[in-house]
Amino acid sequence: MRIVASGAVCSMALALPAHAQNDEKKTPEQGLHIEPSLTAVYDDNVYRVDSAREDPTSDVIVTPQVEVRFTRDNGVRAFTLRGLAGYDRFISESQRSKPRFEAEASGKLLIAGTCSVRPLASYRQQRADYGDINSATENLQRFSTLGVAADCERAAGLYPLAAYRRDTTRNGDGFEYADMTSNLYRAGIGYARPSLGRLTAYYEHNDSDRPEIGVKNRYDAGGVTFDRSVSPITTVSADLRWMHVTSNSGAVGSYDGPGWRVQLATTAIPRLKITGTTDRTVVNDSLVATGFVIRTGYRLGAEYGLSELTSIGAFADFSRRELRQDASIRPFSYTRDRTNQFGALMRRKLTERFALELSLSHYDRSTNSDASHYKATRLSLGATAKF
After folding, report:
1. Nearest 5 degrees, angle CA 290-CA 375-CA 58?
2. Most CB atoms closer than 10 Å: which of 52, 214, 296, 368?
3. How far apart are CA 359 and CA 287, in angstroms?
């Protein structure tokens, strides 16, 4: 259940992570991999209604799916193809049942031994989870992405970086107003030293267009990022920026203010990894007809390895949102909300190929009005196989 991001069309400030280089240094699994899975979820409030006003509807959602991935990496050229197909089957509320599809192609090409170019293309189709609306509203969303990033990262010294990404969102009947196309441009200069870590200064621009209602939003930000391993057991990363957002709709207005993403991760206690994250960003959200959302979040998570086969974890997530919108297009009686999420999970590897996962989550959402409050609890049990 994606309480905050389920309606998010494109996160402008984080659409191209400043720390993408970190992920690429992980050794990829070569060849073809197939992962079928089956998940059953009990949800005690599938329509996210206020239990003080009406009785919540509970249901069990069964999702069979299969993911196929193929990776080839020879050091100079690498590419990954990934596809996923699944079906969310609601046992009682069968009209909510929808298929989900994902397809992605990504690659990396080294040029002159030091520079790399990384193209990306993806497509995703899934049922939108509109917890904010508090009604039996259905929308099948389709997302597509085309992008490319390039840098000449060095172990020590200055290097350039640049990126472009185009995102589109298309919606079902009744939600055409939320159709959107956005273009993000990013350029910067990085500096690396083994004793310092990596420091990057960047500028990024995003323009988003809602063609059905003729509204355009513009986002500009300048900032710095920092990544460093403080010790073998502790890492810190930070992205600090100043954001300026405007809209051609006078009812939406503009926003000037700081944005950030700071994360600290440590394994100071053996087998226990603790991660703390705080962030503020601007999000284009399909629930906000013409404007944008200013989201501030705080998250604390912990994962403990009981053994080589079993791990447990827990998290607490707090988010606060300020909605900038034209209420005449899609009226809401609130302009701010907060969502608290708490959860716990356990993973158990039965063999090298088979694993089970059990999770429990609780959500509590309220607004600055008497509308759109809800509480919900979800219990999930899933099984995954790897071939």
Report:
1. 105
2. 296
3. 28
Token digits of residue 44: 């005690």
CB neighbours (10 Å) of residue 166? 14
Which amino acid would we find at residue 340? N
Q: What pTM did the predictor assign?
A: 0.84
Three-class secondary structure of residue 237 per DSSP: strand
CA-CA distance, 143 to 286, in Å (whole number)?
A: 12
- For residue 350, CA distances in Å to 33, 354, 385 come to 18, 5, 10
> d(Cα 293, Cα 219) in Å, to the nearest integer?
12
In angstroms, rounded to a whole number, what is the distance separating the alpha carbons of residues 81 and 79? 7
- Residues contacting 53, CB < 8 A, separation 6+: none
Give the chain's end-to-end CA distance (angstroms, integer): 27
Distances in whole angstroms, Cα of residue 31 to Cα of each of 78, 183, 283, 295, 339: 11, 33, 36, 39, 41
Please state, in angstroms and rounded to a whole number, the distance separating the CA atoms of residues 339 and 341: 7
Q: What is the pLDDT along the chain (387 residues), one digit of tens a residue?
A: 333 333 333 333 333 433 333 434 455 588 999 999 999 999 999 988 888 888 999 999 999 999 999 999 988 899 999 999 999 999 999 988 999 999 999 999 999 878 999 999 999 998 877 656 666 777 888 999 999 999 999 889 999 999 999 999 998 887 888 888 999 999 999 999 988 889 999 999 999 998 888 888 999 999 999 999 887 889 999 999 999 999 888 778 889 999 999 999 999 899 999 999 999 999 876 656 667 889 999 999 999 999 999 999 999 999 999 988 777 766 667 888 999 999 999 999 999 899 999 999 999 999 888 778 899 999 999 999 999
Distances (CA, A) of 319 to 172, 229, 244, 254, 295: 28, 27, 21, 21, 7
d(CA 243, CA 64): 41
